[in-house]
Every structure is written in C-alpha cells, then in structure tokens.
Design goal:
The protein has about 500 residues and is of the alpha/beta class. It has 15 helices and 14 strands. The chain is globular. Bound molecules: 2-acetamido-2-deoxy-beta-D-glucopyranose (NAG) (8 copies). The site of one 2-acetamido-2-deoxy-beta-D-glucopyranose has 2 residues, from loops. It comes from Nitzschia inconspicua.
C-alpha cells in the first residue's frame, strides 16, 4: 500500500448523478473545473473536458477505444465503472517534486490503483528520475533550463496511466526493492535537458521557445545521461527490463555519434531523435520523434466527418499544395543531379490542381490560395507536400497531418516517428525518395484511386489524433511501440533506406 506523501487520504469528490454519468470537480491552475464522465461500453470517457490553453485536455471524437490495446485513451480519463471513484480519491494531487508540471487528476492511474488493491498489475511502469527538474530541492530544480517542448514531454509522462510518481525515489532510498519474480518493464524518463527545439512553439523563436515561466534561466542546454545514471538501483536490479528514454531535438541528431559506437552503445537507452538517420540508430530500441505543428489546424466535427465518410476526397479544393521556401539541405552535389526535394516541385505549379511556391511568390499570390491562412489552405488540401528542409524532418509534416491532408514526404534515410510495430507510415503517407520529388511523385498522386486516398487520410488523421496532437498521446505512442517490441518482436523501420540502394548516390545520406 503506497500512501500519499502527506499521510492523508482524500475524500471522494466524485458524485454519481445516475447510471450513466458522474460529475467530478477537479482543480487546475487554482480553478475548479467540472468534468462530466459518461459511461460507454463499461468505460468512462471524459465528455465535457475542459480546454485551457496549450495544455488543455480535449476528447477526440477520433479516438477509437476498441482498438486501444492498453485500455486507455491517453486523452484524459478512462476507467472501469467500479474503479471510477479512484480517479479523484487517490492521489488527486501531484506527487512529483517538479511543482511546475500540471498533474491531471482525471487520469486513471493504474499503478496507484493496483497498489491500493484495485485492478490488474500493469505490464510496464513509467518513472521519472529525480536528478534535475524533479529533484527534491525545487530551488535548484528551477535553476535548470528547459525547453517548452521538453516540458510538454514531462507533462505527457506524469499523466500517463502507467506513471508511478514515487517508485524511482523509493527504490533509490531503499524503501522498496524489486522482487525476484518481477516481470515489469520499466521506462525511465530523464528529468534533465536532453531536448532543445529552436522552432516550437514559435518558428525561429529561439529564446522564445525556452520555458521561462518559473524563473528558469535563459539558456540553451543539451545533456547526455552520464555513466553514473546507469548505476542507479533500477538499472542494477531490473537488467533487461529497464530502458532510459533519451529524446534528442538536434537537427542533425547527436553529433558525437555516441549512440552507435563507443562505450555508450550498449547502455539500455531508447534514443528518440527528431532528425537522425535509419543507418545510424539501433534497429531494436530506437525510434523517431515527431516535430509538433507550429501552425496547427483544428478540423471542425463536420470536416472530421468528411474524412470518415470519404467526402473529403471530392470536397477538398486543392489537389497538391506546398507554400514555403525551397531549402532542401546542404547537399549541393545531389541537387545538381536530381534537384532539391522542395525546389523540384516549383516548376509544376499549374494554378489549378498543383499550387507550389514561396508564400510571397507571384504564383501563390495570384492563385486561388491568395489571402487564405496557411492552416485553411491545408484544410482544403488533398495532398500536402512535406519534403525535407534544412534537416530531414519537417514541422510541416505535423501541420499537414493536423489539417487532415495526406503528407507526401521526401527524406532519404530519415528515422520516421514511432516504432514501426506501432505505426506503419506506408498506410498513411506517400513516402518517396528525394530524387523523385516533382514529376515522378505527382504522377503517382494523380493515379491514386479515391478509395486509397480515403483509406490513407483516415489512417493519417487517426495517427495524428492518437499520437501527435497532444504530448500525452506522443508519450503513449513512444511507450506502446516499445511494449510491442518487448511482446511481439521487432519489425524493420519504414521509410527510404539508403542501405537498400545499390548505388548510394541515388539515396541522399546528406543530413
Ligand atoms: C484532493 O484531496 C485533498 C485531501 O487529501 C482534498 O483536500 C482536496 O480537496 C482534493 N482535491 C480535489 C480536487 O478533489
Ligand atoms: C536548496 O537549494 C538552495 C540553492 O542552492 C539552497 O540555498 C537551499 O538551502 C537548498 N534547500 C535545502 C532544503 O537543501
Ligand atoms: C512473487 O513472489 C512473492 C514472494 O515469493 C509472492 O508473494 C508473489 O505472489 C509473487 N508474485 C508473483 C506475481 O508471482
Ligand atoms: C564512432 O563513429 C564515428 C563515425 O561513425 C567515428 O568518427 C568515431 O570515432 C567513433 N567513435 C568511437 C568511440 O569509436
Ligand atoms: C541495439 O542495442 C543493443 C544493446 O542495447 C545491442 O545488443 C544490439 O546489438 C543493438 N542492435 C542493433 C541492430 O544495433
Ligand atoms: C490563376 O487562377 C486564378 C483563379 O483562381 C486567376 O485569377 C489567375 O489569373 C490565374 N493566374 C494565372 C497566372 O493564370
Ligand atoms: C512527367 O511524367 C510524365 C509521365 O511519365 C511524362 O509524360 C511527362 O512528360 C513528364 N513531364 C515532365 C515535365 O517531365
Ligand atoms: C542497381 O540494381 C539494379 C537491379 O539489379 C540494376 O538494374 C541497376 O542498374 C543497378 N544500378 C546501379 C546504379 O548500379
């Protein structure tokens, strides 16, 4: 039995209002919000969830709980009817030291329930280290810089149904031990700055993208876990079942190459970079990270319905769009032969079906796109081009997905987001070599049947809703992928693999 830190138990704040709903008061940012939980198929879903700023929780109509192998939507709360009262009763307040992270009291926390005699033991646990932001001394914790996106990851972690807020520390302090017959898999998240992103939420914002809200220093910092971190109790006592999750936001991956070789190659890490190459990472444990949408479209229920019914295939006005610059990396030799992944499209602008060009260009300004917001254009787009830019990844990719368009990607050897056991991107995106940007790809798009388009669009939008729209979903996707590796085995990465080419120059390894 694990008790609350202050030794108290909370009164049950959930009020049953009938067979089908309960009302629940929760506190966030000092305000009381009223949640209504509706029971469907024996499961409770947050229906009237509140939306409050960037970190608000909303229910996605697109989340299909019946396909959810882990029994959670990751989208607020979901619980078996019998255990619903636990949602607020047990640990309604945060038990992590990092007091700057909003704790979602509506999440049904399965470890907490299990240790209080309710429900099944989850197969895996998420823990957060207490070495940096989450250390006991918050004066010190708040002196460590952090990026806004990295804070979002932390929020996704502490609000995962399998997160255990005190396990790591209790183990370190000898208040717990790992039983010899334990089978739990442990995912350790590192509470120090391993991720820096210059372009989110403000593209080109640099210092604007630092988390300065709680007086943290204005400093860009990226750290690696040290050898000492892997001598901690959990790594020692649960060998083979524990992984440290290492995010990396560098446009060029990790510059030291130390994930691949040297002393760090065998550390139990799952390395999750925004922009690294398939050929450089570990095929079993690593996975790509998805860049968030800076300009995020929000589809209306009607627009979502049009995706579900395939009406979007005939209603969307623009067949192919790309409004942006022509920078496709510093790979001039490759460009001289094949052209750039972006620039190769520019000559195919036809002002009727294909709209491609820089935002201020004559061809865009004198087209039907004139005056439309970037998000509006994408919401009316069938295929949204998302070719690699300076780096292999692109923020546009998530923007296209948010708008319900089908992304067309050119990024040779890029490590695609999420484990391939979880997301087969070939079901959604049109993935083509960089050398085929332009005419070759446009022909394929024109020949694709409406039915195939509809299937792809539905799959894409579901992936977006499940794993990309919110940081909670992203963390859930990261963990679900690793759980599939552990339980069902390893699949090969998707994407354009340079190793598949007999002539390496046809595949662009230049990051
Ligand atoms: C959480 O529990 C504490 C008692 O431990 C109680 O005072 C508080 O009102 C509860 N908050 C909510 C939102 O239920
Ligand atoms: C926390 O850290 C601050 C800054 O170093 C220090 O002044 C303070 O004494 C520490 N507090 C505790 C309880 O150790
Ligand atoms: C593990 O072993 C302990 C002690 O031998 C036992 O009480 C417990 O039920 C076992 N747990 C499992 C899951 O087998
Ligand atoms: C790791 O590989 C890179 C190039 O792939 C090389 O430059 C570096 O020296 C290697 N490091 C070690 C420790 O072997
Ligand atoms: C991945 O890393 C593990 C160590 O964590 C190592 O045993 C394995 O050989 C690596 N696999 C590949 C394909 O690099
Ligand atoms: C492009 O199409 C628009 C109508 O959508 C038209 O007004 C404009 O003249 C066309 N531009 C050119 C260069 O043909
Ligand atoms: C584009 O490809 C089609 C089909 O292969 C071909 O007929 C056409 O000439 C090509 N256009 C250009 C501009 O290369
Ligand atoms: C690559 O292999 C294919 C099939 O074996 C062959 O047709 C092609 O000419 C080869 N390309 C190069 C550049 O060697």
């Amino acid at each position: 039995m694990v008790s609350k830190k202050d030794g108290t138990t909370s009164p049950n704040r959930a009020q049953w209002t009938g067979d089908n709903t309960i009302d629940l008061d929760i506190t966030r940012d000092g305000n009381i919000f009223r949640l209504k939980l509706a029971l469907m198929l024996g499961l409770a879903l947050v229906v009237n969830a509140f939306v409050s700023g960037r970190f608000g929780w909303t229910l996605s109509s697109f989340i299909d709980t019946s396909e959810d192998v882990f029994g959670t939507t990751g989208n607020g709360a979901i619980a078996k009817k019998d255990d619903a009262s636990l949602i607020s009763e047990l640990w309604n307040t945060s038990l992590v030291h990092d007091e700057t992270l909003p704790w979602d009291p509506s999440v049904y926390r399965k470890w907490i329930a299990y240790e209080n005699g309710h429900g099944e033991k989850p197969p895996a646990m998420l823990v957060l280290t207490n070495l940096g932001w989450n250390q006991k001394n918050q004066t010190l914790g708040k002196q460590i810089p952090r990026h806004i996106r990295n804070k979002e990851f932390m929020i996704g972690i502490i609000n995962h149904p399998w997160f255990h807020p005190t396990f790591w520390e209790e183990l370190e302090e000898g208040q717990r031990t790992i039983p010899p017959n334990d089978t739990t898999r442990y995912y350790v998240f590192f509470d120090r700055p391993t991720y820096y992103d210059s372009h989110y939420p403000v593209y080109g914002g640099y210092n604007d993208n630092l988390d300065l809200a709680d007086g943290r220093p204005k400093e860009r910092r990226e750290e690696w876990p040290s050898p000492r971190d892997f001598t901690r109790t959990l790594f020692r006592d649960a060998p083979g079942r524990v992984r440290l999750i290492q995010f990396n936001g560098g446009g060029w991956g990790i510059n030291s190459y130390e994930r691949l070789n040297g002393s760090k190659a065998d550390w139990p890490i799952s390395y999750i970079p925004l922009s690294d190459l398939i050929s450089r990472v570990n095929a079993t444990w690593d996975q790509g990270l998805v860049a968030p949408a800076d300009k995020e479209a929000h589809l209306s229920p009607h627009q979502q319905e049009e995706i579900a019914t395939c009406e979007a295939e005939t209603k969307r006005k623009f067949f192919v769009t790309y409004v942006g610059n022509g920078r496709s990396g510093r790979n001039s030799k490759f460009h001289q032969v094949f052209g750039g992944a972006r620039g190769s499209y520019f000559s195919f602008h036809d002002n009727q079906t294909v709209f491609v060009g820089p935002p201020d260009s004559k061809q865009i300004q004198e087209s039907a796109l004139k005056g439309l917001a970037y998000e509006t254009i994408l919401m009316e787009t069938v295929f949204g081009l998302a070719p690699r830019g300076d780096n292999k990844f692109s923020y546009r990719f998530a923007e296209v997905m948010a708008a319900g368009a089908i992304p067309v990607a050119h990024a040779d050897d890029w490590l695609w987001p999420f484990r391939p056991e979880l997301v087969d991107w070939n079901e959604c995106a049109v993935i083509m070599p960089e050398k085929d940007a332009g005419n070759v790809t446009l022909q394929i798009l024109k020949e694709m049947s409406l039915e195939e388009r509809c299937q792809r669009r539905k799959r894409c939008y579901k992936i977006y809703k499940d794993y990309m729209e919110r940081p909670e979903g992203l963390i859930r996707g990261v963990v679900e992928g690793l759980e599939l590796v552990a339980t069902t085995g390893v699949k090969p990465f998707v994407g354009i693999k340079c190793s598949d080419y007999n002539y390496s120059f046809e595949c662009n390894m230049q990051r």
